[in-house]
Design brief:
alpha/beta; two-stranded antiparallel ribbon
């Protein structure tokens, strides 16, 4: 491949996201290609933190219908997370011509610490 050539986009990208005290979604999006078609899958009724990303032609926001959110908003966090991952799998694909779907959690990238909050070292201590 020659310098400057872009690879064709072979898969769809969905990002499961919720409003957080720290907005991780901005750091994650900054690491991805700007022309990459992305669906932001909101896991709650507040999407105001995503407003600036609505202007991007490659980003589509998938919100939550009020009646669906009413059903889940009082649920434990692990149930809401599972529900939003399911929504990411169902609504994440944008094109039938893609070869798959890559789903990110919005907090998987923290500046220079990829996956710092979710990755755990499971190597046994050999001392």
């Amino acid at each position: 491949m020659q310098t400057g050539q872009q690879h064709a986009i072979a898969f769809d990208v969905a990002i499961a996201t919720v409003r957080r005290a720290e907005t991780y979604i901005d750091a994650l999006l900054a690491t991805l290609r700007s022309d990459l078609p992305i669906r932001l899958i909101a896991g709650g009724d507040d999407t105001t933190y995503l407003e600036k990303h609505k202007r991007s032609p490659s980003i589509e926001l998938i919100g939550v219908p009020a009646e669906e959110w009413d059903h889940f908003k009082a649920s434990p966090v692990h149930l809401r997370a599972t529900w939003n991952y399911w929504r990411s799998l169902i609504f994440g694909s944008r094109s039938l011509s893609r070869h798959g779907l890559l789903v990110f959690e919005d907090e998987c990238y923290h500046g220079d610490r990829m996956g710092a909050s979710t990755a755990r070292d499971t190597t046994p201590d050999r001392r």
